[in-house]
């Protein structure tokens, strides 16, 4: 019991130390190896962008997206979560397309990722909801059923509403998907 309390105290102290040394996170100040899946101090998600110069040379830069993270700020995703969730630090932008890949969905829904990487789960939960899907349901249905469900959603043209529904859309019914509690299946 005492050793687990000591380990918890050490982990907390280390987290506070890392937070203190990093200060505030601005996406534009992050390098290519820490940009993807990071969250700025303002709660906006960071995205890696590729720019091609006239000479043909490629440059990578980190930018602030308009996508907000739920309950997460000042976050650089750990290498352990990147690996556990089947992510790639060199991913450009943010897309729900990877939810159509059964191998990725299997890693995302794994115990290690789903229970241990709340930032990643929050991101993909919201991306799935934007496509009209419910991530926990996709995780339960993994395999061909999940792919079929996402394909049906994409072909239906159904899209969840943006925040601040415009007046002309009043009376239209939208599917509401609450944010998940990070718990294993």
From TrEMBL:
Q: Which residues form the signal peptide?
A: 1-23
- Keyword Transcription assigned to the entry: answer is no
- One Pfam family, please name it: PAR1
* Annotated keywords: Signal
Is Cell division tagged as a keyword? no
Species of provenance: Sesamum alatum
Q: What is this protein called?
A: PAR1 protein
């Amino acid at each position: 019991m005492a050793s687990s309390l000591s380990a918890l105290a050490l982990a907390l102290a280390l987290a506070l130390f890392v937070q203190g040394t990093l200060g505030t996170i601005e996406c534009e100040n992050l390098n290519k190896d820490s940009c993807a899946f990071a969250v700025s101090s303002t709660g906006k998600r960071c995205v890696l962008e590729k720019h091609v110069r006239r000479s043909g040379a490629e440059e990578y830069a980190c930018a602030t997206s308009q996508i907000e993270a739920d309950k997460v700020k000042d976050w650089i995703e750990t290498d352990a979560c990147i690996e556990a969730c089947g992510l790639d630090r060199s991913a450009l932008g943010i897309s729900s397309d990877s939810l159509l890949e059964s191998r990725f969905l299997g890693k995302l829904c794994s115990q290690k990722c789903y229970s241990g990487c709340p930032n990643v789960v929050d991101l993909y939960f919201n991306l799935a909801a934007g496509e009209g899907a419910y991530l926990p349901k996709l995780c339960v249905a993994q395999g061909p059923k999940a792919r079929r469900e996402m394909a049906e959603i994409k072909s239906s043209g159904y899209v969840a509403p943006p925040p601040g529904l415009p007046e002309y859309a009043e009376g239209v019914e939208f599917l509401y998907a609450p944010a998940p509690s990070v718990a294993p299946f």
